[in-house]
Amino acid sequence: MKALVFTDRHFTVGSVDPRIYSGFIEHVGRAVYDGIYEPGHPTADADGFRKDVLELVRELKMPLTRYPGGNFVSGYNWKDGIGERSKRPVRPDPAWSAIEPNQVGVDEFVRWCASAESAPLMAVNLGIGTPKEAGELVEYCNFPGGTQWSETRRANGSAEPFRIKTWCLGNEMDGPWQIGAKPADEYGRTALEAAKIMKWIDPEIELVVCGSSSGDLPTFAAWDATVLEHTFDKVDYLSLHAYFGDVNNDLADYFASPDRMSDRIDELAATCDYVSAHKKSKKRINLAFDEWNIWFHSNSSSAQAKRWIVGRPILEELYTLADAVVVGGLLITLLRHADRVKIACLAQTVNVLAPIMTRPGGGTWKQTTYYPFYYTSRYGRGEVLRCAVSVPSQRCNNWPKPVEMLHSTVVWRREENEMVFFAMNRSLEEPMEFSLALQGFPVKEVIEAVEISGDPTAVNTEEHEAVVPKFRDPAEFMLSAGSVSGVLPPISWSMIRIRLNQ
Fold first, then answer.
1. Residues sharing a CB contact under 8 Å with residue 318, sequence separation 6 or more, in sequence order
2. Which helix (H) or strand (E) segment is 29 a member of?
3. Does 221 have pLDDT greater than 90?
4. I need a labelling partner for 1 at 20 to 30 A (CA). Which of 59, 223, 301, 446 fits?
5. pTM of the full predicted structure?
6. Using an 8 Å Cβ cutoff, are 97 and 75 in contact?
7. Is 332 strand, coil or helix?
8. Helix 370-379 vs helix 51-60: angle between axes, to the nearest 10 degrees?
9. 346 phi and psi, to 5 degrees?
10. Is-contact 90 99, C-beta < 8 A?
11. What is the Cα gyration radius of the chain?
């Protein structure tokens, strides 16, 4: 099988916003308790946060971390998580049938973000919460001093404001599973009033309004249009969420997941543009894909997990090599939409649907999905080039469109004087002979070639990492003045870094 990929320095998609490599920590499962926070652990810092976990998170270079949810936020009172820890209330969390001890709250999480070299993407409760309470949280976090909640923050040990820049106006408010779910008109009106208060308190913040949480809901897209009709002048981004999985035990169909993500992005970008046109506005609403990942392995075990305990062990996916290839493909899709997707959050970061796993009192390990995220986050920053591709396609059982067997993109890192080729070979059996033509770019050498390939069912555990990056010899690739050629194995994700002549 052969593929020809053509790019030209004059045709770009857009610049990558580094925030597409963001993460997510929700009060769910073992994400917080026995995840990032374990006071008795040998590596715990003064706040009780595991330093070994922090080290792995820092390696992923996540500019933002969304918090505290997720479904959790729609029933959460942020005031339960401030002040002296011994006096904080213990509450049932109906969203996840767990106990919330409130030992980690706003102040602790802000400090964790500083240690993780990330920044909070803070969500407010617009389920059973009110616009007034959302404004009070902004006051607590961002107001310098002299008011009730800013002085409470100062009394709690943070003299300087947190200056949290980006905020989510609730979570998945269209979902019937959500605490305080609302029809579009009701949510739109509530979100508008919250946005007004929040921006009056701090005019420098930017806001993400809830979009459709699933393309399968009957309100999809119409919900988004209605919500934006209410909030258009006050918000900066529309959120969208999507999870993927091999639910039909059909690997070829599963490998079409990046195309499903692409369609979702295109549909909601079009919805944003429709509202802009309807309002006769030049303003452009961009997208925050603030929940995305693979989710299907853990459904049975989660249903059986003991209820009403702290750190209820749910949603602990054991990811395979095939999952890592799909995650790499989804990252390629995000890059190919760099013009509209400005924020994206891998959901989540630790233990829950996560690239990082922990054992209470013990070690950490990297799931298979850690590696494509690691390399894309590090080297997928720059300008995304438009690509024209000639490659065979195939039909899938549960996806109506032809699927190109090569899913790829190219990122131009100007300052580093290099091109980075990200590629997913979706063929289950055939290697892919590719030729990458870089029009206007004088090729010097291949710097590095990294590949995830092999047994699609292989997994990583604390005892053994069966899936790790394979480093290919740069001499395997053929070079000419403006092209690079080589072979991609079946069921693989690859990153190839190419140095350019000056």
1. 297, 298, 367, 459
2. none
3. yes
4. 446
5. 0.97
6. no
7. helix
8. 50
9. -65, 125
10. yes
11. 23
Question: In the prediction, which pLDDT does 28 show?
Answer: 98
Q: How far apart are CA 149 and CA 363, in angstroms?
A: 39
Q: What is the pLDDT of residue 130?
A: 98
Q: How far apart, in whole angstroms, are the C-alpha atoms of residue 487 and residue 308?
A: 52
Q: How far apart are CA 138 and CA 141, in angstroms?
A: 5
Residue environment code for 439-451, b if the CB has 16+ CB neighbours within 10 A, otherwise e: eebebeebebbbb
Contact 474, 447 (CB under 8 A): yes
Query: Tens digit of pLDDT for each residue in 300-318?
Result: 999 999 999 999 999 999 9
52-57 CB contacts, 8 Å cutoff, 24+ apart? 52/358, 52/363, 52/364, 53/350, 53/356, 53/358, 53/364, 54/112, 54/115, 54/116, 56/356, 56/364, 56/366, 56/370, 57/23, 57/116, 57/118, 57/349, 57/350, 57/356
Give the residue carrying structure tokens 């899938």: 396
Concatenate the DSSP letters of all residues of 223-289 into one string. HHHHHHHHHTTT-SEEEEEEEE--TTS-HHHHTTHHHHHHHHHHHHHHHHHHHHHHTT-----EEEE
Alpha-carbon gap, residue 356 to 67, rounded angstroms = 17
Q: How far apart are CA 459 and CA 386, in angstroms?
A: 34
Instruction: List the structure tokens of 385.
Output: 């080039």
Q: Measuring CA to CA, which residue among 499, 495, 407 is closest to residue 451?
A: 495
Q: Are strands 478-480 and 483-488 parallel, antiparallel or unpaired?
A: antiparallel
Beta-carbon count within 10 A of 132 CB = 10
Tens digits of per-residue pLDDT, 196-213?
999 999 999 999 999 999
The Cα–Cα gap between 326 and 452 comes to 11
> Beta strand 341-346 with 418-425: parallel, antiparallel or unpaired?
unpaired
* Structure-token pair, residue 228: 């934006």
Cα three-residue angle 22-343-261, rounded to 5 degrees: 100
Instruction: For 266, list phi and psi in degrees, rounded to 5.
Output: -60, -40
Residues 6+ apart with CB under 8 A from 320: 368, 456, 457, 458, 459, 467
- Report the distance separating Cα 481 and Cα 440, nearest Å: 10
All structural domains of the chain, each given as residue ranges with its CATH number in brackets, are 2-10+383-500 (2.60.40.1180), 17-379 (3.20.20.80)
Q: Annotated catalytic sites, by residue? A: 172, 291
Q: Report the distance separating Cα 57 and Cα 346, nearest Å.
A: 12
Q: How many CB atoms lie within 10 A of CB 280?
A: 6
The closest alpha carbon to 279, from 223, 230, 222, belongs to: 230
Q: Which amino acid is located at 243 in the chain?
A: Y
pLDDT band at 428 (very low <50, low <70, confident <90, very high): very high
Query: Count of residues for the chain?
Result: 502
DSSP label at residue 210? -
